């Protein structure tokens, strides 16, 4: 099995299902409630494991009950957590996640600044046997180290650029071999709302493979100067929480397996679409047979 090392954040999510998202101040009532692990890199690791890969999560948690549960949950889901660091005296990341009946969500996150402060703990280890490496923007120092290791080893690296960074992620953009933006992060970084134009603006800053995920509009990516598009798979969405993380985990696994870009994007798009059909954030990450069945149905 191909190994993917996912470097970044892990979160404890508290999910509230509602008829509609809050429109202002006041008291609101949820139809249901559940607790589930979250976080960009951690969700991607779970997706890799569900899709049949060997997944490692490498990051930091606090030395509190939430941190212990985050690590235990990942281990139970088949993710290698041997390189997770528990930081003394710091709280673990937590989120309140509100999801409406159409699957749209509002997320309120708290991640202590000290958790990922530069120079406060060991840099990512356990990267040597990875077939690809995935990083998020929450731990820039750790991401830069992991991307440099990947570049030195000549293996693909996926930078999940899902939100704007203070310096536009210039250092990480220069290190990654594959960069996949959220639509909002690309717009903020490129200063244009058009996804294709945004990718073309970023082309002048890096020779990396560039992509942008745009929900129901699908995925655009550049190979060199050529613009490509993968339509979204039509599904009935009930919960979009974690769909982007599943996409990136599936993409990183596909690259570790040696798939070509078009096949990797199609596979990752199918995995993300299936996640949207199931509630519960990462709990809805699909299995390999489920993704292959969707791909076979689409081709037929």
Write the layout of secondary structure elements.
Blueprint: E1 3-8, E2 11-17, E3 32-38, H1 40-50, E4 54-62, H2 65-76, E5 79-80, E6 85-87, E7 94-99, E8 105-110, E9 132-135, H3 140-153, E10 157-161, H4 170-175, E11 178-182, H5 183-190, H6 195-203, E12 209-213, E13 219-223, E14 226-230, H7 243-256, H8 261-276, H9 288-299
Parallel strand pairs: 1-4, 1-9, 2-7, 4-5, 4-6, 9-10, 10-11, 11-12
Antiparallel strand pairs: 2-3, 7-8, 12-13, 13-14
Helix pairs in contact: 1-7, 5-6, 7-8, 8-9
Descriptive notes:
The chain is of the alpha/beta class and 300 residues long. It has a single domain, classed as 3-Layer(aba) Sandwich (UDP-N-acetylmuramoyl-L-alanine:D-glutamate ligase). The chain has 9 helices and 14 strands. Strands 1, 4, 5, 6, 9, 10, 11, 12, 13 and 14 form a 10-stranded mixed sheet that branches. Strands 3-2-7-8 form a 4-stranded mixed sheet. A hairpin with a 5-residue loop joins strand 12 and strand 13. Helix 1 crosses helix 7, helix 5 packs across helix 6 and helix 8 packs across helix 9. The model has no long low-confidence stretch (mean pLDDT 93).
Number of domains: 1
Total DSSP helices: 9
Helical amount among residues, as a percent range?
A: 25-40%
Contiguous low-pLDDT stretches (5 residues minimum) are none
Helix and strand sequence: EEEHEHEEEEEHEHEHHEEEHHH
Radius of gyration: 18 Å
**Which CATH architecture is right?**
3-Layer(aba) Sandwich
Distance between the terminal alpha carbons, to the nearest Å? 28 Å
And the CATH topology? UDP-N-acetylmuramoyl-L-alanine:D-glutamate ligase
Shape: globular
Strand content: 25-35%
For the sheet with most strands, the description reads: 10 strands, mixed
Number of DSSP E strands: 14
Mean pLDDT: 93
User: CATH homologous superfamily?
Assistant: Ribokinase
Task: Label the structural class.
Answer: alpha/beta
CATH class: Alpha Beta
């Amino acid at each position: 099995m191909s190994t993917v090392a996912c470097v970044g954040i892990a979160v404890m999510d508290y999910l509230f299902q509602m008829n509609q998202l809050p429109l202002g101040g006041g008291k609101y009532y949820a139809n249901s409630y559940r607790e589930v692990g979250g976080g960009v890199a951690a969700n991607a690791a779970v997706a890799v494991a569900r899709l049949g890969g060997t997944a490692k999560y490498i990051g930091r948690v606090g030395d509190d009950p939430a941190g212990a549960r985050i690590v235990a949950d990942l281990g139970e889901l088949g993710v290698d957590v041997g390189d997770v660091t528990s930081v003394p005296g710091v709280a673990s990341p937590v989120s309140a996640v509100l999801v409406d009946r159409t699957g749209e969500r509002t997320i309120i996150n708290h991640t202590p600044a000290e958790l990922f402060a530069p120079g406060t703990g060991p840099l990512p280890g356990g990267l040597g046997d990875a077939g690809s490496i995935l990083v998020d923007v929450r731990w820039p120092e750790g991401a830069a180290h992991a991307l440099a290791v990947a570049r030195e080893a000549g293996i693909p690296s996926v930078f999940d650029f899902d939100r704007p960074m203070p310096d536009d992620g210039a250092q990480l953009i220069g290190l990654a071999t594959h960069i996949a933006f959220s639509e909002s992060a690309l717009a903020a970084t490129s200063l244009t709302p058009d996804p294709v134009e945004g990718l073309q603006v970023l082309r002048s800053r890096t020779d990396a493979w560039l992509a942008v995920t745009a929900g129901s509009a699908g995925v655009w990516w550049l190979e060199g100067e050529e613009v490509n598009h993968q339509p979204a798979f039509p599904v009935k969405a009930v919960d979009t929480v974690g769909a982007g993380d599943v996409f990136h985990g599936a993409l990183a696994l596909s690259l570790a397996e040696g798939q070509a870009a078009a096949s990797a994007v199609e596979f990752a798009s199918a995995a993300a679409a299936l996640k949207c059909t199931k509630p519960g954030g990462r709990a809805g990450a699909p299995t390999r047979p489920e993704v292959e069945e969707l791909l076979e149905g689409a081709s037929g």
